[in-house]
């Protein structure tokens, strides 16, 4: 009789004692990882972490991944929004397991910091033992819960991660969701998989241009969705690019690139398919399974990306950078690729005013409601200025616990306090040396720190905790808050001298309801997130709803909604109010809907069917809104 599986704690103890442990007690991928870690000589209890990468080195590693990170951003943001309320963090690591970015729930960030789950830290399996990031680099995907981590110190985590590959099979990085052991569920693994699938689709769009694309799916309805498999063939019919979905459906791996020919797969030459099938759907039998296949024409709207773009040469040294003349100003729209992300709906010239202040070393103080896009504005401001090659270091004064914000800002020397890292910490001010420091939610900074910050702004010298010589820094300051600082000063909660030091020329970012036609802003945001490439458009009915809704969450709420809709719908979709979540759809003002219906009927000469198609609703829904049966 087969013995029952052992509890994980008992299986772990037996493994460490040298006894055999079956895969019934420990998942096989975890067991194999434990064996690899043991073979590397890692000690589960005694482990000295490597030092955190310096900010300049981290910036260089981020630059190496800049291309795919930019294209991954919408999917990462959607993933972040979906796991934030569960108390988790989203981790982005590069192809070597180095954490590039971390974003998440404030309640978990402190725990993540304690185990060095932070930007600049190396989480390869041979450094950190069994963990989702490092193990995903080995296996492609991994979920590691609690005591499944090889190192004792990481048992307080549960993580799920998946590696990202480009269409040529090169591993680019890892997306990870980490949280408390009892709060990470299988749904989070599926969310990570969906995010990576979307990212790899975007990479295929960008890096497989000038190739003949063959789409594959078991169901023809999936050919226009992110769930289809995609193969790219050159003019000679040789496979040059692939998605993992396609390779898995065909039982192939990355070694098929450069070897598999179109005729071997389809039974007929590429030229024959081009002449006979065009973009029509055909059937393809492979390994006894019938697949739907669609050959798409070569896209000529994008230039192919050079191979070296994914692996650029190392960043120039500081001396070389200083020697190279920099343009004093770059338009933010050109930098970011989409004006919508830079200063969507803001008063003309606001971004340029902020840039001029920053270039003159005058602190920029941004005022605005929560969600108006202050952080995006700062990113655009940094990208448009002469310091765009230097770090932009952001500190959320409201998200860091009061007991940690001083050490976070000013750094500390070795032994400054219990729990301090052996090598000390530079602090965010010194990390921003030569660049820009963004103090978000400055109105929530503890009063005890406001005097120290004022002194740094005046003297440009940082004194770390625990003593040591003060260090001169060259930083430009941007601060932002949703609070009325003048009222905070009157109430004694914010120092008047710091307010006047920051507020030379405060700039107000207006709420979304004051930014003109919100539907035009929505259309611009959709374009920035690639809706046009997927043939996704906004119906007049949804545009009418967007104009009539008050958007209490401002630009963030609108943008999050649009990115979520893009993640949920198939290519070619006309977005209508029916796609909205019910809680939002029920708030739609009936007057606005009726206006849209009457306008559509007028445009189509009273033809109810044509008007309904234009609005993206059924004819019965149109009649119901008109009050007719």
UniProtKB/TrEMBL annotation:
Segments for region (Disordered): 304-332
Gene Ontology biological process terms in this record: regulation of DNA-templated transcription
Name listed for the protein in its UniProt record: Sensory histidine kinase
InterPro entries from the UniProt entry: AAA+_ATPase, AAA_lid_NorR, GAF, GAF-like_dom_sf, Homeodomain-like_sf, HTH_Fis, P-loop_NTPase, Sigma_54_int
A single GO molecular function term of this UniProt record: kinase activity
Ranges in a coiled coil: none
Lineage summary: Bacteria, Pseudomonadati, Pseudomonadota, Betaproteobacteria, Rhodocyclales
Organism the protein comes from: Thauera aromatica K172
Gene3D superfamilies associated with the record: 1.10.8.60, 3.30.450.40, Homeodomain-like, P-loop containing nucleotide triphosphate hydrolases
Highest taxon, organism lineage: Bacteria
Signal peptide range: none
């Amino acid at each position: 009789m087969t013995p029952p599986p052992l509890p994980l704690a008992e299986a772990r103890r037996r493994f460490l004692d040298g006894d055999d442990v079956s895969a019934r007690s420990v998942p096989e991928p975890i067991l194999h990882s434990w064996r690899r870690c043991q073979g590397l000589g890692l000690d589960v209890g005694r482990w000295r972490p490597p030092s955190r990468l310096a900010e300049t080195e981290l910036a260089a590693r981020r630059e190496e991944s800049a291309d795919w990170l930019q294209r991954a951003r919408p999917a990462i943001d959607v993933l972040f929004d979906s796991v934030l309320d569960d108390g988790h963090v989203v981790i982005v690591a590069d192809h070597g397991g180095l954490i590039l970015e971390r974003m998440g729930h404030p309640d978990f960030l402190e725990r993540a910091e304690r185990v060095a789950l932070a930007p600049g830290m190396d989480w390869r399996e041979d450094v950190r033992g069994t963990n989702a990031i490092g193990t995903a680099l080995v296996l492609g995907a991994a979920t590691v819960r609690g005591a499944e981590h090889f190192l004792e110190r990481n048992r307080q985590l549960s993580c799920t991660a998946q590696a990202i590959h480009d269409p040529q099979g090169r591993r680019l990085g890892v997306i990870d969701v980490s949280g408390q052991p009892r709060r990470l569920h299988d749904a989070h693994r599926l969310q990570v998989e969906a995010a990576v699938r979307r990212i790899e689709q975007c990479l295929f769009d960008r890096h497989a241009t000038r190739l003949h694309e063959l789409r594959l799916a078991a169901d023809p309805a999936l050919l226009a969705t992110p769930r289809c498999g995609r193969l790219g063939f050159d003019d000679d019919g040789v496979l040059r690019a692939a998605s993992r979905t396609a390779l898995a459906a065909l039982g192939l791996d990355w070694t098929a690139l450069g070897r598999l020919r179109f005729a071997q797969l389809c039974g007929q030459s590429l030229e024959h398919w081009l002449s006979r099938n065009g973009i029509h759907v055909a059937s393809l039998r492979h390994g006894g399974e019938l697949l739907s296949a669609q050959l798409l024409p070569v896209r000529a709207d994008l230039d192919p990306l050079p191979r070296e773009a994914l692996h650029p040469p190392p960043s120039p040294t500081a001396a070389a950078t200083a020697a190279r003349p920099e343009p004093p100003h770059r338009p933010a729209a050109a930098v970011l690729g989409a004006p919508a992300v830079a200063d969507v709906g803001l008063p003309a010239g606001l971004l340029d005013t902020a840039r001029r202040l920053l270039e003159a070393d005058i602190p920029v103080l941004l005022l605005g409601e929560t969600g108006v896009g202050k952080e995006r504005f700062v990113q655009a401001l940094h990208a448009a200025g002469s310091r765009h090659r230097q770090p932009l270091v952001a500190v959320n004064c409201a998200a860091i616990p009061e007991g940690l914000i001083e050490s976070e800002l000013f750094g500390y020397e070795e032994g400054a306090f219990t729990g301090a890292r052996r090598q000390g910490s530079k602090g965010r001010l010194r990390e921003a040396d030569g660049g820009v420091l963004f103090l978000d939610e400055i109105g929530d900074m503890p009063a005890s720190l406001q005097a120290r910050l004022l002194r740094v702004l005046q003297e440009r010298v940082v004194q770390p905790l625990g003593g040591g010589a003060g260090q001169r820094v060259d930083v430009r300051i941007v601060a932002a808050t949703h609070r009325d600082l003048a009222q905070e000063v009157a109430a004694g909660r914010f120092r008047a001298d710091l307010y006047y030091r920051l507020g030379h020329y405060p700039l107000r970012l207006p709420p979304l309801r004051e930014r003109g036609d919100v539907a035009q802003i929505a259309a611009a945001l959709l374009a920035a997130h690639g809706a046009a490439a997927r043939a996704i458009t906004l119906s007049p009915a949804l545009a009418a709803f967007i104009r009539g809704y008050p958007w209490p969450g401002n630009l963030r709420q609108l943008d999050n909604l649009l990115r979520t809709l893009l993640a949920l719908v198939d290519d070619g979709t006309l977005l209508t109010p029916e796609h909205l979540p019910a809680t939002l759809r029920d708030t739609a003002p009936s007057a606005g809907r009726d206006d849209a219906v009457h306008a559509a009927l007028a445009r189509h000469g009273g033809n109810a069917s044509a008007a309904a198609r234009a609005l993206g609703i059924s004819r019965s829904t149109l009649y119901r809104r008109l009050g007719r049966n």
